[in-house]
Design goal:
three-stranded antiparallel beta sheet, 7 helices, alpha+beta
Length: about 200
Amino acid sequence: IIMNKTLSGIALATMVTFGFTACGGGAAPAAPAAKNWDLCTIEGGTEAPPWVCMPEIGGGIAALGIAQKSPAGPGFQRTEAMAAGRDALARQIAVKVKNMFKNFTQQTGVGSDAVVDKLSSNVSKQISNQMLNGSKQAKYWVDAKTGDMYLLVVLDPNAAVEATKNTVKSSMRNEKALWQQFQAKKANAELDAEIEKEM
């Protein structure tokens, strides 16, 4: 009798469970796939490494170079992507140098706008010529859908700071009136601080 009651209880529990499942319209819907925050989405909906969307690396100066798939092969494609990345680095350097001069001249009152603009342009070109040859590929990724190649191109931040300091001061010496102002203001520390902040 006890066994019959136990079996009846089990049967009843099974029927109740089945009834709830049937009323619920079948199995519960699958949870949406979790977003992978280690990837970014580029044009066409393709997921790519995060540095493709945000090209940066350890506080250094970094830029993205992209080259379309080429019949000339991956070696040519990589050369194209490196060139694009270096162009982007040169633009970044120009902005950083301009900001550095702007902040420095505001703090110290050294130099007229015309002289500073001329100096900023010359320094940007010189630093770009020096530094871009030392730039290197840090990472790469190829889009499986399009065959496009993406390179993360970087500069050594310490080398960028030293090159900027040397170039700025040698260029300022060529502008005698500016150099005399600079020496009179004893603005070396302020200039170094601005270069280190920007570069």
